[in-house]
What does this fold into?
Amino acid sequence: MATEANILHADLDAFYASVEQLLNPDLRGKPIAVGGGVVLAASYEAKAFGVKGGMAGRKARELCPHLIFVGGNFGEYQRLGDAAIAVLNDFTPLVERISIDEAFADVTGCTHLFGSPIDIATEIRRRVRDQLGLPISVGVARTKHLAKIASQVAKPDGLVAVDPSHELEFLHPLPVGMMWGVGPVTETKLHAQAILTIGDLAQAPGGSLERLLGPAAGEKLAALAWNRDKREIRTQHRARSAGAQSALGRKPATEAVYKPVLPHLADRVASRLRAKARAGRTITVRVRFADMRSITRSVTLDVPIATTTTLAEIAEELVRSALADHPCERVITLVAVSVSHLREQAAIQLDLPLGLGDEKNRPGTRQGIARFSADRAIDAVRARFGRDAVGYAIAQLDRARSVPDAFRELAEKDLGERDV
Ligand SMILES: [Mg+2]
It folds into this structure.
């Protein structure tokens, strides 16, 4: 195992919101949220009011009445995210991108060229700021888990390097909720056992975590609490995804057409993910126009989701954004939803109802848990009685439409649907 702190974790700060403030100077210094029905990202000015990614837009407006919602320039996010990762690649080929705005890099082999890992991290931050105009925080440590925690501690716009001889002094006082993989439910369980810090977790009696969280998750967390993490930088990401699409025939490119279809597609995708104990961070939608040309929009969340209603809401935001960028297209012929950047969902990860595990005291959490519980209940009924035994009430997502109409349309869509 490495004895030096050669792993960097670089993470753009409030990425989508920072890009919006970069593109539109009027938004700088103001509380903004990307999204609408669901907040996809919040600026630091909005975070100060408690607004967080994954929160319902309504809730966010309650917390911050002068919050400015912006639509989202997804093409620019992709371009600037790629450009930031390319800066890491200027230093080392050992880069593992884990989302649109976040990557690990192993700089073991390039310190003779560029100086110490801290020098390299400093230079990366400077270049991303100078070339792209965006703030990026970097953690430097001996393991991936510790580097990721260090970059969180460094935020906003900072650099934290953890000296290998003082790792546990750094790690153990931190709140247990900062651990990679501890979501709100796990955190609540740990708090109930008076495990408040990562140090408390490290000192938990043998077997107690396994009993509390399940054998795999308990063992994994105990190891991470002692900074035992042998994972190496994986430059090859296996491209895995789950998706479903619905051929519409020729339909007007209106909300009334796509909105009822998306919960159904989201249900197919999310239930399949749950059945395989997986969840994914990147949600992509594809819309095909009359001339067979397709456009896609995607968004990458902080942590994976496998929740039907959340997936449906995010997909709806993305389709709305895609169509808004193509106002001349009057006809759509297909919509598709897919989820990628899949991860194994150990029991511990199932605690991340909205995919927002690293957020503490998030007001939307209870709703997220309720949603996830509803998903589990529906999965269980279907396992016994078949897939059609129970479904999601679309009225919940779209009060304006009558349920019978929506279901009739879905029944028609089913004929043209296939999994992709
Ligand atoms: Mg980020």
